[in-house]
Amino acid sequence: MANRNKSTSESLPEERRDKSGTPINELPGIGPKRAALMEKLGVHTVRDLLFLFPRRYEDRRARKNISELVPGSPAVVCASVRNTDTKALSGGRRITLCDLSDGTSMLRAAWFNRRGLDKTLAPGAALLLYGTPFLRGSIFEMTEPEFEICKGQDEASFCGIIPIYPATGGLSQKTLRAAARTAVSEYLRFIPEELPPEAVKKNGLLSCAEALKEMHAPGSPERWKEARRRLAYEELFKLQLLLEERRLERKTCRSVPLTPGRYLDAFTASLPFSLTGAQQRALNEIIEDGASGSPVSRLLQGDVGSGKTLVALAFAACVCDSGAQCAVMAPTETLAEQLHAQALKYLVPAGINCALLKAGMPADARRKTISAARNGSAGVVTGTQALLSDKISFKNLGAVIIDEQQRFGVRQRAALLKNGSRPHLLMMSATPIPRTMAQTICGDLDISVIDEKPAGRIPPETRIIDAGAVPELLRFIAREIMHGGRIYWICPRVEDDENSQLPAAEKRFEWLRKKMPPIKISLVHGRMETEEKDAALASFRDGKTQILVGTTVLEVGVDVPEASVIVIEAPERYGLSQLHQLRGRVGRGKRRGVCVLISASGSDTERLRSFAASNDGFEIAQADLKQRGEGELAGLAQHGLASFRVADLRKDFPLAQAARDDAAEYLKNKQKARPQCRSQEMA
Ligand code: ADP
Ligand code: MG
């Protein structure tokens, strides 16, 4: 949402100029130090701050006299300090106890380990406190209440519905709240309304400025919901405009006409197997799209192991036949390496020069890849998103292939357009997106589905065990490893709590090391540095370790043919599609795959049993749809294909459909009238 009407505001008279682009350090109370912390939250200007939305709210409207407090219900009270005392506790802890009174009754507040608090809370000081009271004897107590020294004018920032912003170390909620309040009162009037008036009227939406005010200082939960709806609608509407522009662009844009030739023939001839019917069909669809030189924009969907990568490589060969180069992008370095290995295996024998670009590669090799991309000697270059950076230039980039659900949303897709010519685009995803949803979030893409797996593949067997069977599981694992198998062990991750995934995986890692001393084990989790993660994955892939303990960071596309067993703890926490993704990691080589679900609760057995009984990802996705609503898939799809700050397709799907209709209507009318709003500016 940045860069609203930047250019137009220059020509306006001073008082009407959009000042919301003011650097954040010019806001009262924000010095260089705080500004630096704000930057970490992505806040560079006052406008950014206005669009930094609270993570949640605290309802502090219940302002009470102490005598009216109800044990267990949070409330705000205003009281003055009678007496403050700090005592040492065992273990070096300190407690500060403060007795307060508001004339109706007494309240005791307790804080732990707050140095200097007794000085702040001098007798006579008036405090606003927010906390949950409980009764000890006949006295109300609050533990660790939030408080502010009461100076009258501060009340608005402490009572009412209080926003809780995303935290960054060193920047207090108080600072953020004060800054946001200033931004709202001083700068909101500069925020232009960007939605067409018809859309605002038809959907009964708040104005943008009203909505922003409500986000930071909600008048009521109902008003806040209206604000959220308005901002979600705006995002969805803009997405639809972008998608429509992409659709139009494809009519006017040119790409390299695809002409299958000797490279594709050599590729096909050198395969040790033939493409499945579904693979062939998908490939034909892609080539047909691009034969006339209109840009391919296609999403290739297929279950894990259905052979999407092979189709993509065939497409790459065809791009080379057409005299152009192909960039292949993976979400992580490890996956990029893996794709490169496949390219080496299947494309090099066909006579295509393949190069890899990754962080931390020797400077020499890196320079070589970069120059091969630039001078055109590399037909296929594989890497991460860094491939599309300004530093890498291709002599003749004909196509971009994107592997697996990653953040390559419509804005990134739009960025591929350069000087009226555009590379072909092929995106791969193992998440089947229902038709209606696909139209709504990636309507600029055509879809091919690979609905058939290579013959002779033995589907993995799924076993459900309980915690009691773990010793037996360990013996089974030891035998597997003896026979050349390797093991993934997936630990639960508690949602919204990044901290708790660490001990889970780490504890299991330590525990397994103790239980299975001769076996080498690696650990991977979301809080590790990328390099650390890549190193752990690499040592597992290369067989230096035989068990890989990790969180669902393993979910996407890891391809280790020797991996034969995947153990999943707490499977009830995952959607079925996600479990299926995980299960797809094993049984890719000679050994039959086994997926072991350790279901502690026994609560989920029906769902898990139906999962164990099916090996068809699309069927499982359908079951997921029924059980969890479209929400689960919407979440997954949204993750990769569209990114929103406010809109959430799990809740806002009907709104998205309305926005789609409205955007189409708007564009139709726009062809008659002068443009008011251009999606590129707004995006
Ligand atoms: P996906 O990317 O869809 O998960 P891959 O392209 O990685 O699947 O393919 C999975 C495995 O199946 C790879 O080892 C690949 O070599 C093999 N494979 C792909 N297509 C075929 C085919 N037509 N016949 C036999 N094996 C195939
Ligand atoms: Mg794949």
Please write out the topology.
Elements: H1 6-9, H2 32-40, H3 46-50, E1 56-60, E2 75-88, E3 94-101, E4 106-112, H4 117-120, E5 126-131, E6 133-136, E7 139-143, E8 146-149, H5 155-158, E9 160-164, H6 173-187, H7 197-202, H8 208-216, H9 221-252, H10 262-270, H11 277-291, E10 297-302, H12 308-321, E11 325-329, H13 333-346, E12 354-356, H14 363-375, E13 380-383, E14 397-402, H15 410-415, E15 424-429, H16 435-442, E16 446-450, E17 461-465, H17 470-482, E18 486-490, H18 498-515, E19 521-524, H19 530-541, E20 547-550, E21 563-569, H20 576-583, E22 594-598, H21 605-613, H22 617-628, H23 631-641, H24 649-670, H25 679-682
Parallel strand pairs: 4-7, 10-15, 10-16, 11-13, 11-14, 12-13, 14-15, 17-22, 18-20, 18-21, 19-20, 21-22
Antiparallel strand pairs: 1-9, 2-3, 2-5, 3-4, 5-8, 6-7
The protein binds adenosine-5'-diphosphate and magnesium ion.
Biggest sheet overview: 7 strands, mixed
Q: Output the CATH class name of the largest domain.
A: Alpha Beta
Mean pLDDT, rounded to whole units? 85
Low-confidence stretches: 1-12, 675-683
Distance from first to last alpha carbon: 5 Å
